[in-house]
Give the backbone structure.
Amino acid sequence: MPTIEIQGQKLFYALHASDARQADNVILLHGAGGSRLVWPASLRRLPRATVHVLDLPGHGRSAGQGRMSIKGYASVVASFIEDLSLAPAVVIGHSMGGAIAQLLALETPSLLKGLVLLATGARLRVAPAILEQLRSDFAAAADTILTLYWGPDAPEPLIESGRRLLLQNDRDVVYGDFAACDVFDVTRRLSSITLPALVISGAADRLTPEKYGRYLADGLPDARLAIIEGGGHMLMLEKAPLVTDAVIRFLEEI
């Protein structure tokens, strides 16, 4: 699995290359406190796509510090796309990764071909109590966050695996991620994102509810909306076949 130096830091990513003649370049961006490991095999190995699965700075196996703003992360991803000559790429972003994708579409649209926005919103406010708890008691904060992550059908081993992955992160990096989400707001700029977009929301998502996805799809000029019944915030793991099918159909359309 390769690494690349971006802005003075080594960025780790997994690569799943397609042998198709006209394969799309696809980039998977995880959410706050996540890593490349949150993505199921079905999305990492999309047909007719060369998929780059990133660990953002300070996450997973990527070195350095996390960023304190969505803009900071978007700058890293833009450099990644440029340095590897991936443009125009389809960016699939989950939660905070969806915020990064939206900012990329606003500030560097020429680098992109389309967006898939999973369990995210144009605004991602975080409860002050969660931000405070991330500072004072990281393990307790993880438990609080994880109660909001999963839908009613999520199996216990998947939930426990998610807890381990979250706690593997540095507390300051996770706090920075959630603080960055808290101030993210592009609600007044959605009409400027003219790229084709697929918005996927879970009907059982308690962190970024279905209404967030509907607002996104209504505000984006060229958007499709998919609501996944029973899907929680981690719907790409909970409902991997449904999410993957929606993504494949979108890639075939654009």
